[in-house]
Amino acid sequence: MEALMSHDPPPTETTERQRPRDPLHNWLLGIIAFGIVLFFMVQARFILISLVIAIILFSLTSDAINSIARLRIGKWRITNWLASVFAVALISAGLLALSAIILSQANTILSTTLTYADQAPKAIAGLFGWMGEDVESAVLASMRSADVAAYLRSAANQAGNLLSATVLISLFVGFLFAERIWFNTKLVYLFKDEAKADKVGRIIGSIIRRVNHYLLVKALVSAVTGLLVFGVMKVMGLEFAGAVGIMTFVLNFLPNLGSIIATGIAALITYVQVSDAVTTGIVFAVVGTIQFVNGNIIDPTLMGRALRLSSFGIIISLAFWGAVWGIPGMFLAVPIMVALMIIFSHIPGLRPFAILLSREGLPESDMPPLDRPTPGGTFTPVSGTSATSTDPYGAGSDV
After folding, report:
1. What's the pTM?
2. What is the H or E stretch that residue 328 is in?
3. Nearest CA to 315 among 256, 249, 358?
4. Which pLDDT tens digit goes with each residue over 233-242?
5. Which domain range does residue 160 map to?
6. Residue 51, CB-side half-sphere exposure with 13 Å CA sphere
7. Is 212 domain-assigned?
């Protein structure tokens, strides 16, 4: 009898739930979840890419629309919905114009490059002539085996998807503007705590500020670089000056790699046209100097501390998002990386990843501290709410 009473009671369902899971089990579940998410990201990449671009355009223009909505014309005030309609129309027109320019330049490059398709392999193989005739012949045979025309037609077909993406992005932006006045209210209802909603809103605001600053500075520097490269090509009397200038502007949004690729393309196009090493060397040196000055002096000066990302992390991000979403993913890699670094820095379990993504190991954002209550134990409520309460999270709390 005593032996029977000495036995422990059988484990109940509650006891089983309280047992900590094996770390290996958690890792396996995480890997499976990541694989499922990655699969859906690849399958739905067209919609997701359009959505990310729409969010970026929305964040870039949201502050400007708020300023326009506060303007008065005599006794009349510009309403929020009118400013939003104007913004959506302007964004749609800009996207359509940009798509038309890209398509026209793509068609120009396609039609003219096919003319140089026979000259290009010989010109490129000639660069290896100093290594011997065998090497030059091998390079020439390798270049001729590549179906350049097929690659160009495939690229032109991809460019044709721009119009579909433009329509989808415009729809996303329109609905985002229609919902934006309720965003802060939704945060409060979502978290059921105004203090926590305020923290999340300020984190989102920090992401928007830093991504906007990065994109605006990058657009300005890339535009100046593209104009200068266009001028160099025009002065040298070369064809494709406009196409090379636009290509330089676009490629400069790819950090570290874009400027190298753009310089190589400008030199290659020059050599294919003139087959003169001296002229090609001059173009390569001038364009390379422009890229170096703008990319290593002007760009960091204007960027300041808004983009404190690890260079190695940027390369990994480019490779990952390029594999998942292709070329559009590479252009979105840095804004996504900025957002992830700020989010990770406010989640204790993910903070080590934020430290790895940052340049100096300091991933803190440029916003006021979120983990300390303001004097008097109160917080500034989310816009659109009027309650004031004590911050229950205290120092050191994170979202």
Report:
1. 0.70
2. helix 311-345
3. 256
4. 998 888 878 8
5. 47-192
6. 7
7. no
